[in-house]
Amino acid sequence: MSRNIVAILRGVTPDDAVPIADALIQAGIDKIEVPLNSPDPYASIARMVETFGAEALIGAGTVLTTDEVLRVADAGGRLVVSPDTNPAVIASTKEAGLISYPGAMTPTECFAALAAGADGLKLFPGNLVGPDGLKAIRVVLPPEVQVLAVGGASPENFADWIAAGANGFGIGGALYRPGDDAATVASRAGLIVATYDEVVG
User: Fold this and answer.
1) Cα–Cα–Cα angle for 109, 114, 119, nearest 5°?
2) What would the pLDDT profile of 152-167 be if each residue is shown by its tens digit?
3) Model confidence band, residue 201 (pLDDT cutoffs 50, 70, 90)
4) 122 in active site
5) pLDDT above 90 covers what percent of the chain?
């Protein structure tokens, strides 16, 4: 079962990337992003892809430029996540054959992202919009559009987000903080997956 949870490994190092990814995959989370403001992120992506590329969707977060998109592709990443709606980055991502999840917070940004070719939307910062805000935006979005709630989504409110129309979540600090070992991540991931399975079914 592939759960619609993206693990955000901000601050992970290349040496820790593979054991952390292994812990996540074993727990049932097979979508992983390394934000580009992490130490040597392309090396971390490349190492994870080399080891787990066939069984996990691995890519980058905090992707802000078209040059960064190309470097993600060169590292073997298949997922590009951004905090903003940048049509040039979205177009470059699709031209490279990668999956595009740009950040959007307003209906204008959501539709601009979709018009540029985005595969789905990262509702960010989710805590500013909240489930009520997403519910209002969902009324006008095409029903097939995938929306990930990122920022403010946690096991405590998964049910509220799903009820409002979220399709999944991006989870950062609740899963991984710089310096965490694989056992710590595995424990957190197990709790998150159990709650997700209970809510989503």
Assistant:
1) 120
2) 999 999 999 999 999 9
3) confident
4) yes
5) 98
Instruction: Identify the structural domains of the chain with CATH numbers, from first to last.
Output: 5-200 (3.20.20.70)
Of 33, 94, 135, 156, the catalytic one is: 33
> Position of tokens 């018009």?
115
33 part of the active site:
yes
Among 122, 135, 144, 156, the one annotated catalytic: 122
Q: Cα torsion for 10, 6, 197, 201, to the nearest 10°?
A: 160
Q: Which of 105, 11, 101, 110 is nearest to 63 (CA)?
A: 101
Strand order in the sheet with 79-81: 99-101, 79-81, 57-61, 31-35, 5-8, 168-171, 146-150, 120-123, 103-104
Q: Give 90-133 as a 3 state SS string.
A: HHHHHHCCCEEECEECCHHHHHHHHHCCCCEEEECCHHHHHHHH
Identify the CA nearest to 189 among candidates 155, 146, 151. 155
Spatial distance between the Cα atoms of 76 and 74, rounded to a whole number of angstroms: 5
Is there a contact between 30 and 53 (Cβ–Cβ < 8 Å)? Answer: no
Whose tokens are 């980058």? That residue is 60
Q: Which of 94, 102, 154 is nearest to 123 (CA)?
A: 102
